[in-house]
Design goal:
Strand content: 35-45%
Radius of gyration: 17 Å
Largest sheet: 5 strands, antiparallel
Structural class: mainly beta
Distance between the termini: 36 Å
Number of helices: 0
Helix content: under 10%
Shape: globular
Number of strands: 12
Oligomer: single chain
Number of domains: 2
């Protein structure tokens, strides 16, 4: 039903999120964080079922825990500098296009013959890495 009067719609800040961590994983500060198919935080990796979230702001070790036993703080809605793949490098011609996750610090130009998940959009290239939003 549409509004018929003003509404104080709730607001949630989403630049920093606490995300439940998948069981059996460790996430380092500064690592690329993704959501797995179950919505649990996991480090970036070559897989087709990941959704890019952002950068880890806290270290968590859930290697002996179950899904959701710990929370990782993830910073979002910013551009982060990740390593450019040496074997599938991103070039300036990819500006504004999707890049693909290789690991928790590296992105590549292509989906690796449908083996990699998208990892954000390229917004800049520097000699020591690529800026991904």
């Amino acid at each position: 039903m549409p509004l018929t009067a003003d509404r104080n719609t709730p607001l949630k800040e989403t630049e920093m999120l606490g995300v439940p961590v998948a069981g059996g994983v460790k996430i380092f500060v500064g690592a690329m964080v993704c959501a797995n198919a179950n919505g649990m935080a996991t480090p970036g990796a070559t897989a087709t079922t990941l959704t890019y979230l952002g950068r880890a702001e806290s270290y968590v070790d859930n290697t002996n825990g179950t899904d959701g036993a710990v929370i990782v703080i993830v910073r979002r809605h910013k551009a982060f500098k990740w390593a450019n793949s040496a074997t599938d490098p991103i070039t300036q011609s990819s500006l504004g296009q999707s890049v693909y996750i290789v690991d928790d610090f590296t992105v590549a130009k292509t989906n690796g013959t449908n083996t990699r998940s998208p990892g954000g959009k390229l917004v800049g290239i520097e000699p020591d890495g690529v800026w991904i939003e």
